[in-house]
Design a protein that fits this description.
Order of helices and strands: HHHH
Shape: elongated
Distance between the termini: 39 Å
Strand content: under 5%
Largest sheet: none
Mean pLDDT: 86
Length: 99
């Protein structure tokens, strides 16, 4: 999928988030942002696992890292990180921690 062709469901999410950012009442906007951020935090783990399962399934089918990266629109290193289960920056060791 090209970056230009965003599925309709995803575009609706982006449009809704833009609507939150444009809310005229700053208090209501801040409350809405808080709710969106809280909800997204709770969804992130599931989203990471859904994406990781796709990577694992494709690797099981012997699809190359480069082809997976191109298909998902991420870097080669990101695909490798996802496969290892370390696809989130927060789980990576700090440079100082690496021996």
């Amino acid at each position: 999928m090209a970056e230009d062709s965003i599925p309709e469901e995803v575009q609706r999410v982006f449009t809704a988030l833009d609507g939150v950012a444009q809310m005229p009442d700053p208090i209501a906007r801040a409350q809405a942002i808080s709710r969106v951020l809280k909800d997204q935090t709770e969804r992130n783990k599931k989203f990471y696992e859904l994406r990781r399962q796709v990577v694992l399934d494709l690797r099981e089918q012997k699809v190359s890292y480069r082809k997976i990266a191109a298909t998902l629109g991420v870097s080669l290193g990101t695909v490798q990180d996802i496969e290892r289960g370390s696809g989130r920056w927060s789980t990576r060791p700090k440079k100082d921690d690496v021996s």
